[in-house]
Fold this protein.
Amino acid sequence: MKRWKWMFMTVAAFSMLAAGAWAQDFPKGPINFMNPFNPGGEVDIEARAMQPSLEKNLGVPFVINYLPGAGGALCWSKLAAAKPDGYTIGGFSIPHIILQPMFMKDVAFKTDDFVILSIVEYTPIGLAVKKDFKVNTLKEFVEYAKANPGKVSCGGVGKFTGHHFATLQFMKMAGLKLNYVTFTGTAPLQTALMGGHIDAAFSNSTMMVSSREEIKVLAIGSPQRMDQLAGVPTFEELGLKMYPRIARGAMGPKTIPQDIQKRLEKAFVDTTSKADFKTKMEQAGFVPQVMGIAESHRYLESEVNLLNKLIQDFDLLPAKK
Amino acid sequence: MDIFTHIALGAQVLFTPTNLFFCFIGVLMGTLVGVLPGLGPTAAIALLLPNTFHVAPVTAIIMLAGIYYGAMYGGSTTSILVNIPGEAASVITCLDGYQMALKGRAGPALGIAAFGSFIAGTVSIIGLMLVAPPLAKFALAFGPPEYFSLMLLGIIILIYLASGSILKALMIFIFGLLLSTIGMDAISGTQRLTFGILELSDGVGLIPAIMGLFGVAEVIANVEEEIKRTVISTKLKNLLPNLQDWRDSFWPILRGSVLGFFIGILPGPAPVISAFSSYAIEKKISKHPEKFGTGVIEGVAGPEAANNAATGGAFIPLFTLGIPVNSVIAILLGAFMIHGIQPGPMIITKHAELFWGTVMSMYLGNAMLLVLNLPLIGLWVQVLKVPYPILFPFILLFCLIGVYSLNYSLVEVALMIGFGVFGYLARKFQFEMAPLVLAIVIGPMMENNLRLSLVISQGSPMIFISHPISAVFIFITLALLISPFIPWIGKRRQKLQEKVEGEEV
């Protein structure tokens, strides 16, 4: 009996050592981070803000490569097929990685092809109107839009994206109809709203913060008010229980070995817990997060459920494969 | 605070050993990537950005900006001496610059390109300094309908001024528009003409197209001609343009500067468009338009000034609104945020040292570039003075590496080679390449703005007329389109056409 116990403990100790050694071996070379969007975008800002701390933590270079195209689908199709050794990971945004496999043709990835290592920030989506628009509050906006169904032009980036779904959700909850205008990126959307070429826009908190002076922000999709947007109410306060947002972070192919997943998770969680990362992100209008693998996947799941409900409500037909 | 306090503040920021050093490194790198075909400022800035993390934000911006405007100087050298644009904005400089070089006037061509760039750089910096805030409002007045009408006008001018047959220019332009519809539909997200190739979902890349049409096609054409055209090897003794050259280029440089500056403020590949527009305008108002393309100095001075001024203009939306107008500025914007600077209207007041330091560094950078590009031109020529049997494979290699390094995509490499073969054949049939390149660049923007306008107006095309700025552009476009049918103008254009053709054959 005693001997068995000893043997068991020795084996356990050795296997733990072995596992530890394995994770200690990682990483030996540079980590490649594939950015699915252009330089200067939200994923880029976030990755570059993390880079120095990640390099210190992992002891190897953290290299950012850009693979923009097809709204991110190009990069994610490649990432899904990448060697699952932990040396190739990439950025993502939710809901994009949920919606694209449903609605886009020629997309060579599924949402559950990936392990989400960490969600590092999200940007609540807010509603803003051009400066000289007749309304000043969300209530007035809803009344005006109801009185002029389909006449109010409301911009957002892309179709089947966070902005598009925020618009759909808003129209459903407030019981009105807007004319959704699809832009190719945040920059042209911002210019169009500031120049008064569209009446309203659903867009990221980062844009709301950076062009606060030139537009009227009516409501923001965060659960509580944002410090960076003092005086702007949440949708919830105004009776609309919607929390549209885009979450971003790092992910890799699902088949990366467990202990390597853990090592990467630790690097991200350590980095995002640091105060200077938080302040940097907050200044730019982000809401920084500290989430590990399990928490990130819970977030993903709740988003999937919410979107599926919206898709049913609006009768949106997924693309036939 | 008055402007002199600001200038003093900027100078104080600039004249530290670190900032001077980074300014120099920036313009040096810029000239190098400008000279080498296949490497552009966007790639260079993206590659060097991580190296700026440990320095102050203003130092980083000084260096990255230096690469951007430095590349505009370097690009002209390759255009003039090898007839291959060192980077996209120097495409048009090939037309007359290379012809001048063939006539043994490479020196003055290089000289006027450098001086023109210097003058334009200075003009656009002064512009940036004085009129940034009011100009930002002007750019904001441009919504989708205004952009569409402006681009329509731009194309019609380009086709109208085509040196060969209008029909051929129109044909190749429409072919370009067709190519530009490849890719993901920006509004509905559906794939068009991609045949399941994911790399095509963002459309045919401009860089593979330009490198193919100008780099690869040129190499093929030259191989066929049995190395008659070696790199221009005339002694570059007369770098200083003579009095007549100055008289000819003074106004084109000033016009190019102002034009480039204003086009730079608008989103898009401003250096390319402004150089094309400047060339078109100079040709239009010249007393001897038939000589364009045969080595007239105005054809070098105007576009080179314009593309340089455009880089200065592009900083205005960045500093006043925090909005990037092109990929280079987008990377700079990213650099701002990494260094904890919130882009927006407050930059100039809140981070005065950043704005004025950068502005002052641009003055000094332009002066450094003049030195780098004139007395040291020999150095850059050495880079290019390699014999053709060696240079050609290298040009191909640079094109291949350059295209591959953009997105690590073999599809884009294949695309470039395809464009190379096409460009060679099109050249044989006397098609101009400029309308094709322009169509690829502005096709997607035109389509997008047309559709956005119509979505906003809920389907009514009257939006293009009810917006005053747009209406003006549409009116000029119509006037240009109708003018060939007015007998005496039509005849004049025909005469001009015959003259041009007569000289070209």
Q: What stands out?
A: The first strand of chain A starts at residue 31 and ends at 35. DSSP finds eleven helices and ten strands in chain A. Chain A has a mean pLDDT of 87. Residues 73 and 100 of chain A are 7 Å apart (CA to CA).
